[in-house]
Design brief:
alpha+beta; Alpha-Beta Plaits; DNA polymerase, domain 1; 5-stranded mixed β-sheet; 4-stranded antiparallel β-sheet; 13 helices; DNA repair; metal-binding; DNA-directed DNA polymerase activity; mutator protein
Length: 361
């Protein structure tokens, strides 16, 4: 008899979304190694990589300079975010035709709780097949899906048979599946954590399960509790249809390295104005300003400061970011990327926000 508290969760992940859209719209790119973002001159960062270029070791978030070395014949394309957003909207319409419990993670992936659904179908596997079919019919793109009793397992399952695949992890199979899974394949275990776990003799789920909660907390802090639970298929997170946005920010990678402080100050003011406009459209305000800097050697740093009151005025955001520049080596070192993020948000704050008086040295 099925446990009443078992949920039926689907994780949908579009296959190489940005590059797949480009290959759909431009037949000459099909079957070719395509990169969205960056440039063949080695500027910027890879935003998305087609499966053809991934064979060479290229992946998203990789510096374009490294991608060029790995695959000199790669085709670099500028992102068309307005197109990607339009396609994503069509896909989400499909999701909401199935269930109201949809938690988008990005333009190309989402969790769906289909324990109860608009189709009246009891099988989450059949629903996942139907979703993938509707996506293909409506967008001519493929999606991979994972089906499981919780979000953690569904996320892992969606990666198992990519691209254009479907995997199901049944509740009574979950612990055996996790026992055999390489520790690096556990969602949330990054490269550094994987290396540390390997050094401790933890190479797969079976190894991890031998550790007590106390031992894991001693080695990994609070995250140790998370590792203790997930290897036992315990994940009580619900699918949240109204995720609260935690930050609003913008950044830009420059076509050439910059060390002109006057130009940088003006650029940060332009960026702050755009962030302020976005904040006001959402009737939002924030307390924490973060400046992101990537130097010409790809070293990336951030500097933040927080206030007691909420802000969303362009002057406040810009003055704070420019003040944070004093804590960096900008001016002495050239930069290739600058960004500002406003976080610690109150998205429904009403009334006027305080105009800050920011002291300068």
């Amino acid at each position: 008899m099925e446990k009443p508290d078992i949920r039926k969760i689907i994780h949908i992940d579009m296959d190489a979304f940005y590059t797949s859209v480009e290959q759909r719209d431009f037949p000459e790119y099909r079957g070719k190694p395509v990169i969205v973002g960056g440039s063949p001159e080695g500027r910027g960062v890879v935003a998305a990589a087609s499966y053809e270029v991934r064979k060479f070791g290229v992946h998203s978030a990789m510096p374009a300079a490294k991608a060029v070395k790995l695959c000199p014949q790669a085709i670099f394309l500028k992102p068309r975010f307005e197109v990607y957003r339009a396609v994503s909207k069509k896909i989400r319409e499909i999701f909401f035709d199935i269930t109201d419990l949809v938690e988008p993670l990005s333009l190309d992936e989402a969790y769906l709780d289909v324990t109860t659904n608009h189709l009246g179908i009891p099988s989450a596997t059949l629903i996942a097949q139907e979703i993938r079919k509707r996506i293909k019919d409506k967008t001519q793109l493929t999606a991979s899906a994972g089906v499981a009793e919780n979000k953690f397992l569904a996320k892992i399952a969606s990666d198992l048979n990519k691209p254009d695949g479907l995997a199901v992890i049944e509740p009574d199979e979950a612990e055996d599946f996790l026992a055999e899974l390489d520790i690096g394949a556990f969602h949330g275990v990054g490269e550094a954590t994987e290396q540390k776990m390997n050094s401790l003799g933890i190479h797969n789920g079976d190894d991890l399960r031998k550790w007590s909660k106390v031992e894991l907390v001693n080695e990994f802090g609070k995250t140790g509790r998370h590792y203790f639970n997930i290897v036992r298929s315990i994940d009580r997170r619900k699918v949240k249809p109204n995720r609260i946005r935690k930050s609003i920010g913008k950044e830009r990678t420059f076509s050439k390295d910059i060390d002109d402080l006057s130009w940088i100050n003006n650029f940060l003011r332009e960026l702050a104005t755009k962030i302020s406009e976005s904040m006001k459209k959402k009737k939002a305000a924030g307390k924490t300003v973060t400046l992101k800097v990537r130097y010409d050697d790809f070293e990336t740093i951030s500097r933040s400061t927080s206030f007691n009151s909420y802000i969303n005025e362009p002057g406040d955001i810009a003055d704070t970011a420019i003040s944070l520049l004093e804590e960096t080596e900008v001016g002495d070192r050239k930069v290739r990327l600058l960004g500002i993020t406003l976080s610690n948000l109150n998205l429904h704050k009403k009334g006027r926000f305080k105009q800050l008086e920011i002291p300068f040295k």
